[in-house]
Automatic annotation (TrEMBL):
It comes from Aequorivita aurantiaca. It comes from the Bacteria. The keyword ATP-binding applies. SUPFAM superfamilies: P-loop containing nucleoside triphosphate hydrolases (SSF52540). Residues 6-227 form the ABC transporter domain. PANTHER family: CELL DIVISION ATP-BINDING PROTEIN FTSE, IMPORT ATP-BINDING PROTEIN. This is ATP-binding cassette domain-containing protein. Keywords: ATP-binding, Nucleotide-binding.
Length: 227
């Protein structure tokens, strides 16, 4: 049980008055790579937002990296997010500072003070995504794939118990998507747990893994056919 990083039980997810997902019962175990798929508008983003505290869980039970989602308070959210690494489709890097300073910003904001420790952490996460030589660049000097690698590096800074990636390849061409996916798979092989929302079925076929599907207000696990 202690290896469960996320579970929801009989949960309902609303956007305002609208019920987006109901009777959601899912779990993610430490070390898993889990896809969340579904057509546009079926609730993938709403589900992810609930997990990182952007949408309240109004009905049912849920726990993520030790936080109870049903009783989550506004004040808990920054602490919850420190235990999560969140990666978005549009990277969300700060364009007015270099890669190094984007990462430094997050570390400083989350309480890191020791300069050598900060530098060593920045080097460590950039090495993991193959971006160590580009730390002096500004985000707008990087390709989309490189920006997403930096966003993944940023997600790794505080050794997250779970990485939530919402359409991380949504803005990338197929070849770059595969490269970013390889980075995520490598990180997963090294022990990070990842939940990735995607509508990129080509990636799913190329890299089969546990898959949850949103459809008709429900989430269920789909069994992938093996050839
Ligand atoms: N802020 C909001 N207010 C009200 N309704 C919303 C809001 N955001 C999303 N919705 C509705 O909730 C439903 C699920 O949307 P959501 O964005 O979670 O789907 P999605 O599967 O992530 O889609 P996409 O792949 O296009 O991002 C949709 O019917 C959408 O119109």
């Amino acid at each position: 049980m202690s290896d469960t990083v996320l579970f929801l039980k009989d949960a309902s997810i609303f956007q305002g008055e609208n019920l987006v997902l109901s009777d959601v019962s899912v779990s993610v175990e430490k070390g898993e790579f889990v896809y969340l798929i579904g057509k546009t508008g079926t609730g993938k983003s709403s589900f992810m937002k609930t997990l990182y505290g952007d949408l309240p869980l109004q009905k049912g039970e849920g726990e993520i990296v030790g936080y109870d989602l049903a009783t989550l308070k506004e004040n808990d959210i920054p602490f919850l997010r420190r235990k999560l690494g969140v990666v978005f489709q549009d990277f969300k890097l700060l364009n007015d500072r270099t890669v190094h300073d984007n990462l430094n910003f997050v570390l400083t904001a989350t309480g890191w003070k020791d300069k050598p420790a900060i530098e060593s952490k920045i080097n460590e996460v950039l090495a993991k995504v193959g971006m160590k030589t580009k730390s002096f660049k500004y985000p707008y000097q990087l390709s989309g794939g490189e920006q997403q690698r930096v966003a993944i590096a940023r997600a790794l800074l505080n050794d997250p118990e779970l990485i939530l990636a919402d359409e991380p390849t949504g803005n990338l061409d197929p070849q770059t998507s595969v490269e970013v996916m390889e980075v995520l798979r490598e990180i997963n092989k090294n022990g990070n747990t990842i939940l990735m929302a995607t509508h990129d079925y080509a990636l799913l076929l190329k890299y089969p893994s546990k898959t949850l599907k949103c459809d008709e207000n429900q989430i269920f696990e789909v069994v992938q056919k093996t050839v």
